[in-house]
């Protein structure tokens, strides 16, 4: 027995249900890939930030601005916070009352499924694609979140992991 044809929304219908223009800074949810390895991941995370109403916090490095420009498929300005000193910035975020969450394999990490939507300003720390979050930065985390995996790999691509966490914290999944 068939349920009948599925209704597919048109582009005009989709646009009518979304924000009219990009936000300047929501400052409620920040994705922070502070030790990036690949520029392509930054463009993907920038697109995710737009989708969930978050901002991106990145270190000041010569290649990052170009990576963001190339990866910004929205072709309009996005909310980017530039970080000179990642460890100092994370410490300042904690002192200011932000919830600092690291995506990391740790004994105390909670599974992604148990992560509740953010209720206050939240910074999501994403580590280096090969090395994870540096040891000195893990001391600045309030908690860690682990994305369970069944396959043989130890972790997901940083853009995929950051996107999953962002959607969960934004309450969209």
Automatic annotation (TrEMBL):
PANTHER family the UniProt entry points to: RRNA METHYLTRANSFERASE 3, RRNA METHYLTRANSFERASE 3, MITOCHONDRIAL
GO molecular function annotations of the record: RNA binding; RNA methyltransferase activity
Designated name of the protein: RNA methyltransferase
Source species: Actinophytocola xinjiangensis
tRNA/rRNA methyltransferase SpoU type domain segment(s): 37-167
GO biological process: methylation; RNA processing
UniProt entry keywords in alphabetical sequence: Methyltransferase, Transferase
Stored Pfam families: SpoU_methylase
């Amino acid at each position: 027995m068939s349920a009948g044809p599925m209704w597919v929304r048109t582009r005009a219908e989709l646009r009518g249900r979304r924000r009219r223009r990009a936000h300047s800074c929501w400052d409620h949810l920040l994705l922070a890939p502070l030790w990036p390895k690949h520029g392509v991941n930054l463009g993907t995370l920038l697109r995710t930030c737009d989708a969930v109403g978050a901002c991106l916090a990145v270190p000041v490095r010569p290649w990052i601005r170009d990576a963001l420009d190339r990866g910004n498929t929205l072709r309009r300005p996005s909310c980017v916070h530039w970080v000179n000193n990642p460890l100092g910035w994370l410490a300042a975020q904690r002192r200011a009352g932000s919830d600092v969450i690291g995506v990391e394999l740790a004994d105390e990490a909670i599974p992604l499924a148990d992560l509740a939507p953010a209720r206050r300003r939240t910074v999501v720390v994403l580590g280096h694609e090969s090395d994870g979050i540096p040891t000195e930065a893990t001391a600045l985390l309030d908690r860690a979140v682990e994305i369970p995996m069944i396959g043989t790999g130890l972790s997901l691509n940083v853009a995929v992991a950051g996107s999953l966490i962002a959607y969960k914290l934004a309450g969209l999944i």
